[in-house]
Amino acid sequence: YQGLAGRSTNEVLQLYAAHGQQMKFQRSSVVTQLHGAIKKRLKQDLKSLHSFALELSKDFQRQSKTCLYQVLAAVQGIQLQNEAMKMFQIKAFDLEQSLQEVTERYEKEKQKRKALHNSLIELRGNIRVHCRIRPLLPFDDAAGHSQDRQRSFSEKVAYAADDETILVKCSRPGHASVNKTFQFERVYNDLESQDAVFADVAPLLTSLLDGYNVCIMAYGQTGSGKTYTMLGPQLEGNLAFAIEEESELGIIPRATQEVFRLISEKPPGSYWVEVSVVEVYNNEIFDLLAKDSCGKVFGVKRDVVTTREGKSDVPSLTHETVENASEFLHLVNKGLQLRVTHPTLVHAHSSRSHLVVTLTITTVVFGDNFGMLWEDEQTSQRLNKEASFTFPQKMRDNKSTSSSRASSPVQLEATEKMKQVKTRLQLVDLAGSECVGMSGVTGAALRETSFINRSLSALADVLGAIAEQRAHVPYRNSKLTHLLQDSVGGDAKLLVMLCISPGQKYLTESMQSLGFGTRARQVQRGQVKKKNFSVPSKGK
Question: Where is the composition biased (Polar residues) (predicted)?
Fold first, then answer.
């Protein structure tokens, strides 16, 4: 058994050895096959990679050529653009020079325009008189009289013969009718609109920004349409603006809109506007924008004084800064709520005071450029004397801030050279002149009528003194004329809008108003003669 076991062991070892050789042989053949397969696949991959690299190289060359062409085209385009830019720069330089020349010519032409406009206004008259005839209204009928008497009272006796002549039929019982004519710069018939009236007023507002004070006032008897002409329609008994009816707006709201339109065409910040609203009641001035400690608006009595420069001024008068026409109308409407009215036999809402709405236009200029704004030497000298240095609170704050920041001498010098010129636009709705017998007023209303008629008489005396070129003009005879002193005399532009009732019932008052307008026209003729303006003939 031990021998068998030993032989079996040898056989097993031989079998293991043979099996190992066989396995080794098998592995060797598999490796050889795998190596061959890998080598073959590798050759195929190398061949494919080589062909792909060739295609990639060719594609890269094509793209490189395309990019090169694009770069060359871009370079050529940039060169052309540079050349065009140079041409544009040359043209821009030429245009800048042309613009500078045109600007200089424009400034010269603007100064000529101002001078010509002022000459035109002066040729027409520094004091111009327009006359407006209102239509017949239902209250023109004389209640309580016979039908014949009513028909006589409501008969129309004032007509616009043409746009410069008014015809009045004057008749008395038992006498033949006499036609009288009056000449004015413009006459409006009873059909002409508010637009037509303001179209002749607007040119005066250009003079306002040219450095002249302007005053527009409505004069006439009670119920002749002065408030309608100046303000517009009345709503529910209160003087309020019918904004929804733009065509019905009066001179005051339209003039404000036009002023702000003209200011919008100027450099921003060079102008600002302040408004004040006063009434002259019983020869006393009341500030209609003054407020109490609770902020409620109420009328405060003020006084008018003459400054050292000979200008009229109302100390402590409330001035509100406004930036547009809507703010202005809001303030004026507040003041109108306090205006004194009283019903009479002639008019249910008769105004018992003179309303004066003042727009103060402040122009900021530098000392070196001051004379350039007004080429007229006399105007420049006059405004230079009037140039003041009182800024509104907002402007003072800005000025103090800029002064604290100004560290260089140039900035300090520029601040010191800054001046301001104030011009005024005064819009006046005068109380109506009236006959006591016609209006039927008594008591306090009778006293009001006395003050109204005396102040209107003082206004006529002032215009008469100016027409006769007297050495003394009685401005101080009335608070009204004292307040309007700067806008009636001197170089100021005054437009008197006569308002006439056309009925026979108001003939006496209409003739008185037309006589006032005739005296005012004498002022303009005297001024034109004094300035020795030569009017060219039609042929020339």
Answer: 400-410
